[in-house]
Amino acid sequence: MAETARLAGPKPGQRLTAHRCDVSDESQVLEFCSEVKTQHEVAHINLLFNNAGIGGGGQFVNGDREQWERTFAVCWYGVYYSCRAFMDLLVASEEGHIINTSSVNGFWATIGPDVSHTAYAAAKFAVKGFTEALVTDLRINAPHVKVSVVMPGHIGTSIALNTSKVLGIGGPLEMDSAKVQAVRERMSAAGLPVDNVPDEHIREMLHQRALDFREKAPMTAADAATVILDGVRDGRWRILVGEDAHALDKMVRKDPESAYEPDFIERLYAAGHFGGLPSTGQKLS
After folding, report:
1. What is the pTM of this model?
2. FRET pair for 4, CA 20 to 30 Å: which of 157, 184, 234, 250?
3. Segment 42-52 mean pLDDT
4. What average pLDDT does range 185-206 have in this prediction?
5. What is the rounded distance in angstroms from the CA atom of residue 188 to the CA atom of residue 195?
């Protein structure tokens, strides 16, 4: 956060503040809102970006319920609580705009036929549906406030590195032997020859894959931010981010019945998209 604040400014005439807030906890979100009003000395805001997200909680049938609900709470309730907390400040403005980050997983509930992805996808579908419904609700009750849903593809962020820390299981390099063994078993089940690979090598491999997710993504976070801000300026309620997001959107709309068949993602790969997504052997939770 300190690094982000340093990079962001502030420029002359701007006031920049930093806040710690667990967006899955409504009391903390309300406190955050109170801090904004006090520290910025305002009775309104113009822009609300709801962008917090983690992965995890992929499996529903055999997965960890606590991880599932933690992931869903951050990705969905973070949006809901923030909109509730800041709505009066948005309505009090002469013009306002809410920007809710969903995902391509808000219209395609998987990252491949061999990877469970239930909590994140469920939350991102909720964000998309809620935002689309707000278009009408705001037009009726607060027409000077607009809303956009952002649906990025693979963007170079640290979500793969940070998720396990938020879920309390440590980063890949800190995984204990039991968790490494669970990963080894999933890799073996996926056909990867890792039975005799030392624990430390598996930890390093997982860490490198998380780094690659950020460093080798087809679009940087900075470029994604530019696309999002341009979309807000243009007043678009639906903002797809990345060529892969546009390609996936077209494919799902063209043939929704096959969207969860194994050959669907193979067609995505063949078109040069989502090659950096994890396979079963790469999944950490």
Report:
1. 0.86
2. 234
3. 97
4. 81
5. 7
**Rounded to an integer, what distance in angstroms lies between the CA atom of residue 85 and that of residue 83?**
6
Long-range contacts of 68-75 (CB under 8 A, 24+ apart): 68/118, 68/119, 69/119, 70/24, 70/166, 70/167, 71/119, 71/120, 71/123, 71/163, 71/167, 72/119, 72/122, 72/123, 73/24, 74/23, 74/24, 74/123, 74/166, 75/119, 75/120, 75/123, 75/124, 75/127
User: What is the C-alpha separation between 273 and 140, in angstroms, rounded?
Assistant: 39
As a whole number of angstroms, the longest Cα–Cα distance in the chain is 64
| 94, 144 contact by CB (below 8 A) | yes
Q: What CATH code would you report for 19-171+219-282?
A: 3.40.50.720
pLDDT for residue 181 is more than 90 = no
**Strand 47-50 with 96-101, pairing:** parallel
- Domain regions of the chain by residue span: 19-171+219-282
Mean pLDDT to the nearest integer, 30-41: 97
pLDDT in tens, 244-283: 999 999 999 999 999 999 999 899 989 988 875 554 333 3
**Measured distance CA(107)–CA(79) in Å, rounded:** 17
Other C-beta atoms lying within 10 Å of the C-beta of residue 98: 23
pLDDT at 67 over 80: yes
The tokens describing 130, both together, are: 């809620």
Could you give the CA distance from residue 258 to residue 260 in angstroms, rounded to a whole number? Answer: 6
Nearest-5° Cα angle at 101, 6 to 41? 50
- Residue 113's identity, in one-letter code, is P
Q: Which residue has the higher pLDDT, 92 or 282?
A: 92
